[in-house]
TrEMBL record:
It holds the Pfam family NmrA. Residues 2-252 form the NmrA-like domain. It comes from the Bacteria. This is NmrA family NAD(P)-binding protein. It comes from Jiella pacifica. Transmembrane segments: none annotated. Gene3D superfamilies: NAD(P)-binding Rossmann-like Domain (3.40.50.720), UDP-galactose 4-epimerase, domain 1 (3.90.25.10). SUPFAM superfamilies: NAD(P)-binding Rossmann-fold domains.
Length: 287
């Protein structure tokens, strides 16, 4: 049967597709513009949108398992609910949903609260699903690399509590493993939640220290200026999204993103190898 992947051209989604193809899965990718989709050979590409019910119905025809990934957009919550309702209508009983860690804690952060609402729908409607809850993506560091190397500062206000950052490649592989596990199960499996975390818990100061070691020069951590962070974000994203990011950063500072006991061991066992470290990732993108 077929596994449908949404968000297939993004950072996580493309890793999911690649991992599924490597495992011999029959993969269908839902994309807005097939002409711009660069996906592995053998992947069936279908055009559609998560708000276009007709295209969703077509994309889900003959699908046995769904990977649902929604981008951070103003109507993310509506997109997810529509997709899950169409999947239910299509009798898809095997689902992996990409949520976020602490979605039930960061209740004032719009894209976290929206994901928690989706989790509630999955649970209350009895959908058979794995809910993946990733922490902060190491891959976000790509967007600040030039600031770090050019100005000698680590600009993300991630605070002193710590974030268990995870590599998107690890997220993609874990998601693929869960999709295959559900796909190959003779019967739908019960609901499960998995925190996706990295092996290290990084503070602003410790992240800056790792950059300092990798680059061989001092990188400073200027502190937790979330208001300044919002203003910087407004230069290349809508005001509502920049404010959403500020609210998230404020929760980084007040709460952190800490793993629960056993999270790292569970993921290491699932992957059959160690999780990628922040130091390894920084060394990779620093060149």
């Amino acid at each position: 049967m077929t596994i449908l992947v949404t968000g297939a051209t993004g950072n996580v989604g493309s890793n999911v597709v690649e991992q599924l193809v490597n495992r011999g899965a029959d993969v269908r990718a839902l994309v807005r513009d097939p002409a711009k989709a660069s996906l592995p050979a053998g992947v069936e590409v279908v055009q559609g949108d998560l708000l276009d019910v007709d295209s969703l119905r077509g994309a889900m025809k003959g699908v046995s398992t769904l990977f649902l990934l929604n981008g951070v957009v103003a109507d993310e919550f509506t997109q997810a609910l529509i997709a899950l309702n169409v999947a239910r209508e299509a009798k898809i009983e095997r689902i992996v949903y990409l949520s976020v860690i602490h979605s039930d804690v960061y209740v004032n952060v719009p894209h976290f609260a929206g994901k928690f609402g989706v989790e509630r729908m999955i649970e209350q409607m009895g959908l058979s699903a794995t809910i993946l809850r990733p922490a902060y993506y190491m891959d976000n560091e790509i967007t600040i690399k030039d600031v770090i190397t050019g100005y000698g500062v680590y600009p993300m206000p991630i605070g002193d509590k710590g974030l268990a950052m995870i590599d998107a490649r690890d997220i993609g592989e874990i998601a693929a493993l869960e999709l295959v596990r559900r796909e190959q199960s003779p019967a739908p499996l019960p609901l499960t939640r998995i925190n996706l975390v990295g092996p290290d818990t990084l503070t602003g100061a410790s992240a800056a220290a790792i950059w300092s070691e990798v680059l061989g020069r001092e990188i400073a951590y200027p502190g937790n200026d979330t208001a300044g962070f919002e203003q910087n974000m407004r230069q290349f994203m809508p005001a509502w999204m920049a404010y959403d990011m500020r609210l998230m950063a404020e929760r980084f500072v007040s709460d952190g993103m800490l793993p629960e006991a056993g999270d790292v061991d569970r993921l290491t066992t699932l992957l059959g190898r160690p999780l990628r470290t922040y130091r390894e990732y920084v060394a990779q993108i620093a060149g």
